[in-house]
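seq as requested:
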Amino acid sequence: MSIRLRLILTLTLATLAVWLSAVVWIEHSTRAQVEQVLDSRLAEAARMVSSLLSDHRIALTYPGALIPADEHDGYLRHLSCQIWSEAGVLVGQSSGAPEGPLTEVPVEGYSTSVIEGEDWRVFTVVNADLGLRIMVGDSIAVREGLVFDVICGLLLPAAVILPLLVVALWIGVSRGLRPLDRLTEALRLRSPLDMSPLPLAPAPPELRPVHQALDGLFARVRQARAHERDFTAFAAHELKTPLAGLKTQAQIARRAPDEATRQAALAEIEASVARSDRLVRQLLDLSALESGEAAPQAVALEAILGEVQHDLAPLAAKQGVALAVAGGEAARLPLPRVLLYTLLRNVAENAILASPAGSAVRLAARCAPGCCVIEVRDQGPGIPEAIRARVTERFLRGPGAPVGGSGLGLAIAAAAAERLGAGLDFPPCGPEGGQVVRLVLPRPG
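struct tokens:
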């Protein structure tokens, strides 16, 4: 259902509910008022007749018309009056009164009776001095007719006004939604490549947050596309370098005049292949981190540190670096295992590549209530202060960066840490040199 139709139906039903509530309330109120007023008139008329009889202003020579019919008063001509003696003899009545007594109740006051299948409301006055009972009554159907006329006076205008109200609501809601229609049309006609902010135009306050949210979305998409272009360009450049080296070294190996030159070229080819393989693996890791969903599981910290050590042992041996692991014996953390492994592998790999031969890289874990801290410490030159704040940017390589790096390792680590809800920082090591990468993982109590 459209917003326009929903609004019109809601407003129409709300108006109808208010109107019907008013009709019900007025019906009850009018009925009570009519009964009170007409009961008072019955009592007043009966007492007036009794007073006239006491003053001998009405002669009781024969049953005659005490209250003549008034053709100009729709209510008065429906009043009926009877005068009965204590012996049960009718001594007088008004024109149009029923043939039988209006009520069988002998005491003075109000009563309700059924005469010829019709309900009557009667007030009786007992004139003890004259030995008479004066009864004045009216038909309850007359009272119901008065109330019905009032209700019809409310419902008939409603039947005329309600269609006009629906038309007015349709026009008003349509005009109110016109800015939204203009926004829809502007978005429909916009080019998929157009990520510029929406043009400034007068808009109701309710639509301004939508404008702002769309402009924010366009800005984020524009930024994401710029990052994507940069990422593609950087990745192509990083892949082009080792591929060019591969081609050159392959040509050298084919034309090598001696075995030593050929072996040197093959070693360079192997290094270029390893660099390309590492870059492709890191690109795949980064893509998986940004698009994939990893389910949490109970991860044994000691086991994952041992796995990282095992997988990086060949690289550490090739670089002449000792890779040691300590801590994390009893800790188990509920988190996605692949994210933690990817993070630690890339940080440790960076540390190995940055460390000189004969040095050591140490992975240490310690846990406390609420968190576990994992540190990767190397003995390399460390991160220069000039780029420390930007060290997790993609493809960023500082001066003195190790050969074979791609500038993606710490970017991958930062993306994984964000997915884990962990803290990742790079504090300086102080006078002893080297670099520490500290990961703080939340630990449920």
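The first strand starts at residue 80 and ends at 85.
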